[in-house]
Design brief:
The chain is of the alpha/beta class. The chain has helices spanning 30-46, 70-73, 79-86, 145-154, 167-175, 186-191, 226-231, 236-252, 305-323; strands at 10-13, 18-27, 51-57, 92-96, 110-115, 123-126, 139-141, 159-161, 181-185, 200-202, 216-221, 264-270, 276-284, 291-299. The strands form three sheets. Strands 1, 2, 3, 4, 5 and 11 form a six-stranded mixed sheet that branches. A hairpin with a 6-residue loop joins β13 (276-284) and β14. α8 runs parallel beside α9 (305-323). The protein starts with 9 loop residues before the first strand and ends in a 7-residue tail after the last helix. Residues 1-18 and 63-70 have low confidence and may be disordered.
Amino acid sequence: MSRICTASILVLASAFEFRFDLSIGTRASPLAIKQAELVEAALSLTAPGTMTRLVSFSSGGDADLQAAPLAKAGVRFTTEIDAAVLGRAVDIGVHSLKDIPPQHRWTTGLTIGCHLPRASPLDVLIGSTSLDMLSAGARVGTASIRRHAQLKAARPDLEIINVRGSVEARLDMLDTGHVQALVLAKAGLERLGLHDRAVSELPPGVMLPGVGQGIICAVCRDDADALRLLRAADDPDTHLAATAERAFLNVIDAMSPWEGRPPLGALMARSQDGSSWGFHGLVAQPDGSRVVRVERSALAAECGLGDAAAFGKEAAEELLAHAGADFLHH
């Protein structure tokens, strides 16, 4: 695909074809650029002839490697790109779905136009073959309050070190001995070709993934011609899973006593035979002293997008009934 185009959308219409020139906003990190290139590749298949160029933006969330944990501090990686899309500096923006805030915190006027097929949603442990093999008091690096809480629930003795920055910067902290292990998303390592760094895959029963983890999405203005183009690249199963998980997030987030979202995880996944969907959700106290989980299932034939939204919402309401309104205030 050529990257020579203007920042606005040009539509060349004929009786048989619509052609778009698109500018695509992305963060400047190697992983973010790789994810934007995957959106480009998807568009080249669903809309041959589309011409694109990438426009990178720096993000305040990338700057400080030792700031407060991301979720608790309320850092938003999507802000600069979303503003560029709304301001028509670019036509679409590419995000990791897990970085998009809950609906009531997110920018109005934007919509998620497509979800690429989901990569592995799981987290991996780097630096040790398992959590059990880590020495007592080992220093484990993560910037995620969700991972922090689940690590402490599994191993209260671990010292959790807040590390931020690119995947490469975090791996450097492991390689230089600042931490003895890291927890990172498997999908990010795979997209960067760093498969060999992943030592131990953490199952959902130990480390439930973040909402939307492993999903790349593209956003555009609600009224943009680009929306039709993006819809053609949308993966139905991924869209359905994302709908359920974000419905769960939207409800649970309301209980957060700080600026960022609470430590929560969710995963909606098809059964191996494809006949049903299973949903797992949790919310935890930040120190891991208490974790509340919910599980649900539904027949795939009876689960459309509207059902998925209700599914996630009802799971969240059930979980909150068990956790109590003051769960995060202890």
